[in-house]
């Protein structure tokens, strides 16, 4: 365990046995460029930010620092108890815990219970790390497991008084389609900018085409998919015609696509 000073100025308690956490410790960075875009969008728009799949707070803490400057809030959702405890520690370390509502649940399309597997980071001996919803295809049989509660994002926000959402970050290891299915009111009414990381391997194991599982919702919401096709080039892509895999993308309302593409080029594409 060690405390790292990140290049953006905040500090993080990191477990160097974790593949997710050791690189930020040595580099002082974690997804910095996309986080800068998210923070700029928070400044340009009213509403809160939601971190779905918050893990130990590598996105949550910088979003909370922005929220503190704007006198707003962040909702951080993380199902794994050990990750949630570290998340809270990192928020307190940076004195932004009062600006964050932490919810220890897995976001899905229904409320209930599900089984999660504790994956590579934990196998290496780390106390915190990556986890994914159990897939009953035999490949998950060797992983340690934990039972967690599930809720929809719409329900979580209802409990908090339905705050408007401007930015939504999603990193839920192959459960993105079900999270979005449980966030239909939130997305259709608030039209947030969505930073999403799709894990196609999990969809393949579930026997699902990731694009076909997601594209109908995006079409119904009139959302577009922004993706990087070269090092410094971002495009608005048509999910229904694209042959490119759905991986790290930004989902935006059509009316905001041009603005966000320009912002991605200036903040992400130029390497600053």
From TrEMBL:
Start and end of every Methyltransferase FkbM domain?
51-224
Read off the Pfam families from this record: Methyltransf_21
Q: Which domain of life is it from?
A: Bacteria
| InterPro entries per UniProt | FkbM_mtfrase (IPR006342), SAM-dependent_MTase (IPR052514), SAM-dependent_MTases_sf (IPR029063)
Name of the molecule in the record: Methyltransferase FkbM domain-containing protein
Source organism per entry reads Mycolicibacterium doricum
């Amino acid at each position: 365990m060690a405390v790292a000073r990140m290049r953006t100025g905040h500090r993080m308690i990191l477990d160097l046995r974790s593949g997710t956490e050791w690189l930020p410790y040595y580099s002082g960075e974690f997804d910095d460029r996309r986080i800068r875009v998210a923070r700029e969008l928070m400044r340009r728009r009213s509403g809160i930010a939601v971190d779905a799949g918050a893990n130990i707070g590598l996105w949550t803490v910088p979003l909370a620092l922005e929220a503190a400057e704007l006198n707003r809030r962040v909702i951080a959702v993380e199902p794994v108890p050990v990750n949630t405890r570290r998340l809270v520690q990192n928020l307190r370390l940076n004195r932004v815990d009062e600006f964050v509502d932490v919810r220890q649940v897995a976001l899905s399309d229904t409320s209930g219970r599900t089984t999660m597997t504790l994956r590579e980071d934990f196998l290496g001996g780390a106390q915190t790390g990556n986890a994914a919803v159990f897939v009953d295809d035999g490949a998950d049989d060797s992983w340690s497991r934990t039972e967690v509660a599930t809720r929809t994002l719409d329900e979580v926000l209802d409990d908090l008084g339905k705050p408007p959402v401007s930015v939504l970050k999603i990193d839920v290891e192959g459960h993105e389609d079900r999270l979005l299915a449980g966030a239909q009111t939130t997305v259709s009414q608030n039209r947030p900018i969505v930073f999403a990381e799709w894990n196609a391997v999990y969809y393949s194991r579930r026997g699902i085409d990731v694009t076909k599982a997601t594209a109908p919702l995006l079409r119904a919401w009139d959302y577009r998919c922004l993706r990087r096709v070269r090092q410094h080039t971002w495009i608005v892509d048509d999910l229904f015609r694209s042959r490119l895999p759905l991986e790290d993308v930004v989902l935006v309302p059509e009316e905001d696509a041009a603005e966000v593409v320009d912002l991605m080029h200036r903040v992400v594409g130029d390497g600053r």
